[in-house]
């Protein structure tokens, strides 16, 4: 008896130890993300901004930026690290916008034309970037960053000096008064450009959308489970698996919250009542969801498997007959194209094109967002991208006000967020290199 | 004949030939536009001395095997801190310059040492991590420039918090080396002090690389495995290289500031590493091999090119900053070229 109880306590201890180890490893693996959650909460407290404002602003920024962040995932899959070259894709998008604004096509037509026009440009740029990165294997990230700077120089040369001299173009609105070069800012507002072309197609109150989405999720997921359990070879599996139950519970919670906000908001405190008015640009969200789906589905294709094989080991990939260089070029081209589209979504929401500045910080901010979400140089998921976007942009919204409240200077907050963006990239890349070195030492 | 040309281009390097040719071409254009040649030459020489030490800072870094030091801003902010403290203490003239150098030294050594330890943990990804370490440090110090308790009236904003964006050095160490023993020859102004200081620094680095420690450092950089086998502490050599590079960065920015006449704070140091890296690469260095001659040649070619390009570009296009765009293209193009040589085919 005593012996048995001893083993029992021993087993219990072991389990406890395991769970505590798990918690510890979770903390270590997600340290960056956890740190950011804490910083964000402190920032929200310090800024004293109304929650409604933060939520509204955050929603705008999520729909504006997540496409760009998601465009980073495929090169990570292919083992090329974080693609700092998405600035080049952004430039392709901007060239398309300049052309379309010059042609005078506005609204959603203009937006679609931009998207179409960006395709050949982005594919060409992506191909060239890919060629370059194949020559700098092992140093892809710094090479893509410098390539971004280099392309920026050529971009400026074309739009400041070539237009009006080498490239004939006459447009008094968009060009500088001397007739050479494009103006610093180009207005994209409703009548002359593509402002809100995608966002304003369909805007619905956010809680009603949540309600509908949650309901649909429950129905479709249940049908899917029934189908799987009945007709496929999953008969051993129980219908109520843990995953199923959690999904359904989360959906139900969302439904209840949404119902309270959407139909019964009179009883809520006035600060929360405002949330009812937040509207969601549905089409933009659908586009982003489609990209998420694309990222999931591509892994299941032959091409996606090639990406993974190349990402894991170039030599094995080569031996098994994969054209490594070609696969890498395809990965970068897809990423560049997605970045071009992402920049279109970004700019149609902002509403003014800063010809020589809109693209410059895109890569840094997108990469910082992805890394904050818990991604690393060799692993990035959609969830990490979305979570990172939320956290990074919360910090972006609150830090100037928090800096002002804390030190009496809004600039401090702005420098702080730049510090955080750069610091997080440096830190995560450093940690990754360090881990890789330790692994290498263990093996060797 | 073609064989000789090929051998020549292999020896000198294609980008260097292109850039030299371009430099000559611009110079001929300047002659054709009847621009004042002697002013152009004096400006080239002044900028050569002004940037020289920042370029020199790359040498110990490359020699010790950590590659081009993209984290040069670390050294730069140390130098700036030294300069600011020297002004704050009320030093004047030569004293203030020497004071600035002496004050910045311990900071630079400490920062370089810590940073060197960091670099040893991440062997293989130095360049990218260095870039972002430099960037984040500049942003961090931007916060510090607002918060640090400086209160010399020439440095702080009359209203509000923090230091000014540019601080004039007229009453302290502005132009102190440039005017030291300066003399004109054929209308060309030779800033003797500046050049002597620069060549003095070059000599120091050259002498160091001839010393026992310097030889060990070079060996560690050339072939780490061989160096370990012959009993050299590679990690320590890399730290020494980093410290030297950081210290030279601090000295370099002070020389730069005195020649420019202003200390530039906040975002100014952010991109300063790239022109320095590009200069030494133009001079013929690679990411693994660098000599003093590369520094002198590279700094002269790159800075001369930019100095001549500015007025020539203004003659061609009156608006916009064509020479700035040119700088971006040349600078990043040459860094990319060097990177393709590091990675190799496979």
From TrEMBL, chain B:
It is found in: Cell membrane. Its main location: membrane. InterPro entries: ABC_transp_permease. PANTHER family: ABC TRANSPORTER PERMEASE PROTEIN YPHD-RELATED-RELATED, SUGAR ABC TRANSPORTER PERMEASE PROTEIN. The keyword Secreted does not apply. The chain crosses the membrane at residues 12-33, 45-63, 70-91, 97-117, 129-148, 182-208, 239-257, 263-283, 295-313. This is ABC transporter permease. Pfam families: BPD_transp_2 (PF02653). It is a multi-pass membrane protein. It comes from the Bacteria. Keywords: Cell membrane, Membrane, Transmembrane, Transmembrane helix. The lineage of its organism: Bacteria, Bacillati, Bacillota, Clostridia, Eubacteriales. The keyword Cytoplasm does not apply.
């Amino acid at each position: 008896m005593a012996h048995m109880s001893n083993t029992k306590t021993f087993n219990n201890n072991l389990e406890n130890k395991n769970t505590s180890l798990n918690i510890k490893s979770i903390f270590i693996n997600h340290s960056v993300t956890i740190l950011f959650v804490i910083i964000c909460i402190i920032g929200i407290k310090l800024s004293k901004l109304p929650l409604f404002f933060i939520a509204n602003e955050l929603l705008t920024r999520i729909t504006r930026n997540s496409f760009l962040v998601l465009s980073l995932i495929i090169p990570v899959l292919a083992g090329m690290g974080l693609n700092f070259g998405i600035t080049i894709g952004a430039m392709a998008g901007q060239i398309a916008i300049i052309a379309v604004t010059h042609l005078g096509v506005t609204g959603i037509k203009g937006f679609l034309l931009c998207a179409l026009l960006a395709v050949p440009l982005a594919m060409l740029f992506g191909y060239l970037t890919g060629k370059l990165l194949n020559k700098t294997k092992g140093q892809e990230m710094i090479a893509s960053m410098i390539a971004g700077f280099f392309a920026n120089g050529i971009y400026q040369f074309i739009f400041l000096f070539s237009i009006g001299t080498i490239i004939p173009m006459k447009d008094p609105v968009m060009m500088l008064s001397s007739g050479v070069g494009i103006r610093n800012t180009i207005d994209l507002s409703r009548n002359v450009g593509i402002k809100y072309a995608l966002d304003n197609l369909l805007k619905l109150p956010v809680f009603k959308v949540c309600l509908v989405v949650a309901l649909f999720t429950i129905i479709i997921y249940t049908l899917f489970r029934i189908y799987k359990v009945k007709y496929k070879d999953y008969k051993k599996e129980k219908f109520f698996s843990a995953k199923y139950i959690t999904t359904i519970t989360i959906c139900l919670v969302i439904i209840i919250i949404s119902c309270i906000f959407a139909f019964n908001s009179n009883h809520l405190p006035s600060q929360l009542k405002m949330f009812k008015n937040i509207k969601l640009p549905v089409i933009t969200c659908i586009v982003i969801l489609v990209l998420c789906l694309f990222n999931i589905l591509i892994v299941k294709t032959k091409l996606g498997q090639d990406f993974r094989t190349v990402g894991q080991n170039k030599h094995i990939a080569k031996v098994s007959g994969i054209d490594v260089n070609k696969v890498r070029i395809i990965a970068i081209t897809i990423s560049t194209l997605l970045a071009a589209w992402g920049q279109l979504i970004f700019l149609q929401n902002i509403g003014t094109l800063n010809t020589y500045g809109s693209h410059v910080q895109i890569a840094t901010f997108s990469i910082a967002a992805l890394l904050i979400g818990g991604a690393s140089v060799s692993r990035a998921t959609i969830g990490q991208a979305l979570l990172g976007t939320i956290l990074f942009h919360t910090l972006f919204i609150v830090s100037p006000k928090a800096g002002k409240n804390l030190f009496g200077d809004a600039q401090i907050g702005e420098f702080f967020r730049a510090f955080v963006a750069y610091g997080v990239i440096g830190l995560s890349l450093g940690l990754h290199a360090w881990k890789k070195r330790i692994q290498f030492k263990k093996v060797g | 004949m073609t064989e000789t040309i090929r051998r020549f281009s292999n020896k000198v390097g294609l980008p260097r030939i292109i850039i030299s040719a371009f430099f000559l071409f611009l110079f001929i254009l300047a002659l054709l536009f009847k621009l004042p040649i002697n002013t152009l030459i004096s400006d080239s020489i002044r900028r050569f001395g002004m940037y020289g030490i920042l370029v020199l800072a790359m040498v110990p870094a490359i020699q010790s095997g950590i590659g081009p030091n993209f984290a040069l801003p670390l050294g730069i902010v140390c130098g700036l801190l030294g300069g600011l403290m020297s002004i704050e203490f009320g030093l004047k003239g030569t004293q203030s310059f020497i004071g600035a150098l002496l004050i910045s030294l311990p900071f630079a050594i400490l920062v370089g040492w810590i940073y060197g330890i960091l670099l040893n943990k991440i062997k293989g990804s130095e360049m990218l991590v260095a870039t972002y370490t430099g960037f984040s440090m500049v942003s961090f110090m931007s916060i510090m420039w607002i918060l640090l308790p400086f209160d010399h009236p020439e440095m702080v904003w009359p209203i509000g918090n923090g230091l000014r964006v540019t601080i004039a050095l007229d009453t302290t160490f502005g132009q102190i080396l440039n005017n030291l023993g300066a003399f004109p020859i054929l209308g060309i102004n030779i800033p003797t002090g500046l050049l002597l200081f620069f060549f003095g620094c070059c000599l120091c680095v050259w002498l160091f690389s001839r010393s026992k420690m310097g030889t060990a450092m070079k060996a560690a950089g050339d072939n780490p495995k061989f160096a370990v086998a012959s009993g050299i502490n590679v990690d320590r050599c890399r730290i020494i290289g980093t410290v030297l590079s950081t210290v030279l960065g601090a000295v370099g920015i002070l020389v730069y500031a005195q020649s420019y006449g202003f200390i530039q704070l906040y975002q100014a140091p952010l991109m300063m590493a790239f022109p320095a890296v590009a200069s030494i690469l133009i001079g013929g260095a690679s990411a693994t091999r660098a000599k003093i001659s590369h520094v002198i040649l590279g700094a002269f070619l790159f800075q001369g090119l930019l100095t001549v390009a500015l007025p020539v570009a203004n003659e061609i296009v009156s608006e916009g900053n064509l020479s700035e765009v040119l700088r971006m293209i040349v600078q990043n193009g040459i860094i990319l070229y060097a990177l393709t040589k590091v990675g190799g085919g496979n």
